[in-house]
Amino acid sequence: MTSAATEVVRLLTVGGETLAVAESLTGGLVAAELTAVPGASKAFRGSVTAYATPLKHQLLGVDATLLAERGAVDPQVAAQMAAGVRRALGADWGIATTGVAGPDPQDGQPVGTVYVAVAGPSGATFPAPGGGKVEPLRLNGGRAEIRMESVRSVLALLLSELAGEQTGNERAQDTEQNGGF
């Protein structure tokens, strides 16, 4: 899995950007993948493992009413976690994981229900409220498989956003070089 983390670190470093991670069900696995990459300190700011639901509000600024009404396993919670960790740790990008790894359902959600989210730099337009992108997952397998697939999925989501941003920047540079056409 380190290849995705390696590419994330490479793209962030080349772009001079930074990343912060908010984790729940993955319990630090995303941060571990990223920090296994040599040179990660150039781009990785840090992480918050907000495993307990109240910490999502206290440390990441997730709306307390949202948590009370819907629980921690919710797409808006994931989006707010990503945006909150980005703000809290002063990073250009924030990513988040929240979900149910098992063995029991949580907040009325079955095992394997996971949301991964990314929040990008100011001015970036994303479909999720609060300037982020959320991907819902319905994962099969045991606890370990669900957690590792969540790590893979959040890194893949970030990679797709970073690649899109890089393509957009390259287009802007081409336009400038070609006289604005």
Textual characterization of the structure:
The protein is α/β, with parallel strands linked by helices. The protein is 48% helix and 18% strand. It has a single domain (2-177), classed as CinA-like (Maf protein), CATH 3.90.950. It is built from 6 helices and 5 strands; from the N terminus they run αβαβαααβββα. The protein has a 5-stranded mixed β-sheet with strand order 2-1-3-4-5, sandwiched between helices. Helix 2 (29-35) links the parallel strand 1 (19-23) and strand 2 (44-49). Helix 1 (2-15) packs parallel to helix 6 (143-177). The protein is globular. The termini are far apart. Mean pLDDT is 89; it is low at 169-181.
What does this entry show, briefly?
The chain has 181 residues and is an alpha/beta fold. It has six helices and five strands; from the N terminus they run H-E-H-E-H-H-H-E-E-E-H. Helix 2 (29-35) links the parallel strand 1 and strand 2.
How many helical stretches? 6
Overall shape: globular
Rg (C-alpha, Å) = 16 Å
- Major sheet: arrangement of strands: 2-1-3-4-5
Q: Which CATH architecture would you pick?
A: Alpha-Beta Complex
Write the topology of this structure:
Elements: H1 2-15, E1 19-23, H2 29-35, E2 44-49, H3 53-60, H4 64-70, H5 75-89, E3 93-99, E4 113-119, E5 132-138, H6 143-177
Parallel strand pairs: 1-2, 1-3
Antiparallel strand pairs: 3-4, 4-5
